[in-house]
Write a structure and sequence with these properties.
- The complex is a heterodimer of chains A (228) and B (295).
- Chain A contains 9 helices and 10 strands.
- By secondary structure, chain A is an alpha/beta fold.
- Chain B is mainly alpha-helical and 295 residues long.
- In chain B, the strands form 2 sheets. Chain B has a two-stranded antiparallel sheet with strand order 1-2.
- Chain B is globular.
- The chains are: A alpha/beta (228), B mainly alpha (295).
- Chains A and B meet through helix 2 of A and helix 6 of B.
């Protein structure tokens, strides 16, 4: 579904990605794991075209996107949920939810989204900025489920959240994968990633250095690979 | 004769009306400036010149094409708005992400060029523009004689401001505009073409200025300086209202029109400085403006 080849990215003079290469199959959940500053978030951003400069190849469903503008990448069917969640403070919850335009078929209906995230229904009229951290994360994910994008890039969806919320997000990810979404996760929480993802790419110094498929002893193998 | 603090009431009401009319122009201009600064980060010093261009467009449409006031009210914002879109596409586009100072200098230069071009062609004496037939005359409200046209200016301005407010605060398009003002890259990552949104927003802000210009043509003399005189006050009002706040711009626009007029009644010497004194006070105690959102 997604083929990333020798992806390099720069912020000004600093060369952050040095040739990231990986593939994702339709319907998979994969994680990008690595230390702070390894280039996981930059990988996501540069797939979206949000880095000032990028080279290499990003093919989505056979279509080359390396020269596409960010909105064209999104229109091709890739949605991004950033680490900082980017809930718009000047918009209500429902306005945040309806902000991303539909870009294709296969998105969830508002009703289906409210079933997954009951809190959002109650909070619909309130300001986005008044939500708790967990609710903001739910809104940030919910927002990209109704657009029809089939590949979701989730940057640290569990960061800073209480264990009970992390658990809820894990269940939600299982639920949306059953609906056929393909998901890429960036995670610091290796235990969480081991539980929800099928395959794991280890990112080090702007490159993918290893791939580990989930199976017996995944967590131990991941920890060994990450040297933690 | 009735008086208020020793001021004859008719004089008081007369000034109040004048204040509301000035306020109508302040509101329409500061609204456009505020939206443009919010999304583009451009301090649009060419706004006054585009207001003046709106007034001249009305005059030219009548003089050359025989199109009257109502036609101008519809056409001039479109024509000048299209000119604004050209300015944004050809010039402003290159300045995004740079220091605000670049936009300020470019738009100031543009204002001088546009004013110079009109002065060269039409002189600086000022041209007369007739009040439309339907709005000639006046009505006696008992406490004041209200010329129909002046009442209409306040009414039209209020309607335009409220429509703009509703468009921005209550529609999907407005939600996109507000979101892009907060975090443009993220809005683009949702598949929205932000550069087009930016262009249209600038065009719409300029169209508002042109609309104000058409309304001003029958009241003020149509001359190349008419915008330059207004724009400094309007900037003070945007700062007082709070950059990026729609309601703030409208309320401060009308409010300071009235405050300026009342100062003219009670202490005329201060009437041209009162707004700047208020600006200093607001900046000292509420740096983000009376209705400002951002810190």
């Amino acid at each position: 579904m997604l083929e990333v080849r020798d992806l390099q990215a720069w912020y000004g003079d600093s060369h952050i990605l040095h040739g990231v290469t990986f593939d994702i199959q339709e319907g998979e959940v994969v994680s990008l794991l690595g230390r702070n500053g390894a280039g996981k978030t930059t990988t996501m951003k540069s797939i979206m075209g949000l880095t000032p400069r990028r080279t290499g190849s990003v093919k989505f469903r056979g279509k080359e996107l390396i020269d596409a503008r960010t909105d064209q990448v999104a229109r091709a069917g890739i949605a991004f949920c950033p680490e900082e969640r980017a809930i718009f403070a000047s918009l209500t919850v429902i306005e945040n939810l309806l902000l991303p335009p539909r870009i294709g078929d296969g998105g969830l209906s508002l009703e289906a989204i409210y079933e997954l995230f009951p809190n959002l229904r109650e909070r619909a009229g309130g300001q986005g900025s008044k939500l708790s951290g967990g609710e903001q994360q739910m809104l940030a994910i919910a927002r990209i489920l109704r657009t029809g994008a089939r590949l979701l890039l989730l940057d640290e969806p569990t960061e800073g959240l209480a264990p009970v919320i992390v658990h809820q997000i894990g269940r939600m990810i299982q639920s949306i994968r059953q609906r056929g979404f393909t998901i890429v996760l960036v995670e610091q929480n290796v235990r969480f990633a081991a539980a929800v993802a099928d395959r794991h790419f280890i990112v080090e110094q702007g490159k993918v250095t290893d791939m580990i498929a989930s199976g017996t002893g995944t967590l131990e193998r991941l920890q060994a690979s990450l040297r933690i | 004769m009735d008086t208020l603090f020793g001021i004859p009431l008719p004089l008081f009401y007369g000034q109040l009306l004048l204040g509301l009319i000035n306020g109508a122009f302040y509101a329409m201009l500061s609204l456009g400036l505020s939206v443009i600064f919010g999304l583009l980060g451009i301090v649009n010093l060419v706004h006054g010149a585009l207001f003046m261009t709106g007034a001249f467009t009305a005059w030219i449409l009548l003089d050359t094409f025989g199109l009257g006031f109502w036609w101008s009210l519809a056409l001039a914002p479109l024509i000048v708005g299209a000119f604004g879109i050209l300015i944004e596409r050809l010039l402003l586009r290159h300045l995004y992400g740079l220091d605000h100072m670049y936009g300020l200098v470019l738009t100031l230069g543009l204002a001088l060029v546009i004013e110079g071009a009109f002065r060269n062609k039409y002189g600086s004496g000022g041209l007369a523009y007739q009040i439309p037939d339907a709005l000639r005359g006046a009505t006696n409200l008992g406490f004041i004689v209200l010329p129909y046209y002046r009442g209409a200016v306040v009414g039209i301005s209020l309607v335009v401001c409220l429509l703009t407010w509703a468009l921005i605060e209550k529609t999907r398009l407005g939600a996109r505009l507000r979101a892009a003002t907060e975090n443009a890259p993220m809005v683009q990552a949702f598949g929205i073409n932000v550069p087009v949104l930016v262009t249209l927003t600038y065009g719409a802000g300029v169209a508002l200025a042109a609309c104000a210009g058409v309304l001003a043509a029958p009241i003020y003399s149509v001359n190349p300086q008419m915008g330059a005189n207004l724009i400094i006050v309007v900037f003070a009002i945007v700062v007082i209202g709070g950059m990026g706040s729609i309601m703030g711009s409208v309320l401060s626009g009308f409010g300071f029109g009235v405050i300026e007029a009342l100062t003219k009644v009670f202490y005329p010497q201060a009437s041209s400085t009162v707004i700047f004194l208020c600006m200093v006070a607001v900046l000292l105690f509420r740096p983000s403006g009376l209705f400002g959102r951002r810190s």
